[in-house]
Amino acid sequence: MSYQPPYTITPKKLQAEQCLFRNGTDTIFRTKLIGYLMRLSDFQKHTICESAKHNFGQDTQVWLFGSRVDDLAKGGDIDLYIEPQMQKPADLITAKLEFLRDLHKQKIDVVLHRADSAVELPIYRIAKQTGVLLQ
Questions:
Q1: CB within 8 A of 99, min separation 6: which ones?
Q2: N or C: which end of the chain has fewer CB within 10 A?
Q3: CA proximity to 13, closest of 35, 43, 45
Q4: Residue spans per domain, the chain
């Protein structure tokens, strides 16, 4: 018998409700997803979105996926799936390095998907289906 996660998130179920929670002195931004909450502070979300716009272009889309979408999980790095506005590989390399430099205090994994790419990796589909669109 194969392992089944305790929840399933499909694009049709991504009806999110933004909530603010107090956690000690921090205000935490969480989005309810089928009874699960995204673990990202207001500051982290804002910083990620602004840095993505600055480095990859204003029309860039960013999804949070992985363990940070599951409120039952502990710790974990921040997994981001990004569909950048820019498409030139050399520009993307520079933009990704700048983006990671902007967010250097966080443990972050970034998956980039160029719109003009002929390659469709499974991680692209999985990140969008199970992730939360931040921007």
A1: 51, 52, 55, 56, 110
A2: N
A3: 35
A4: 11-133
Tokens of 79: 């997994």
**pLDDT class of 34 with cuts at 50, 70, 90:** very low
If one counts every other C-beta atom within 10 angstroms of the C-beta of residue 106, the result is 12
Q: Give me the DSSP letters along 39-52.
A: -EEHHHHHHHHHHH
DSSP at 54:
H
* C-beta pairs of 75-80 under 8 Å, 24+ apart in sequence: 77/106, 77/107, 77/108, 77/109, 78/40, 78/44, 78/48, 78/106, 78/107, 78/108, 78/109, 79/108, 79/109, 79/111, 79/127, 80/48, 80/108, 80/109, 80/110, 80/111
Fold adopted by 11-133: Beta Polymerase; domain 2 (3.30.460)
List pLDDT tens digits, range 51-77: 999 999 999 999 999 888 876 777 788
Mean pLDDT of 92-118: 91
pTM of the model: 0.70
Residue 105 identity: K
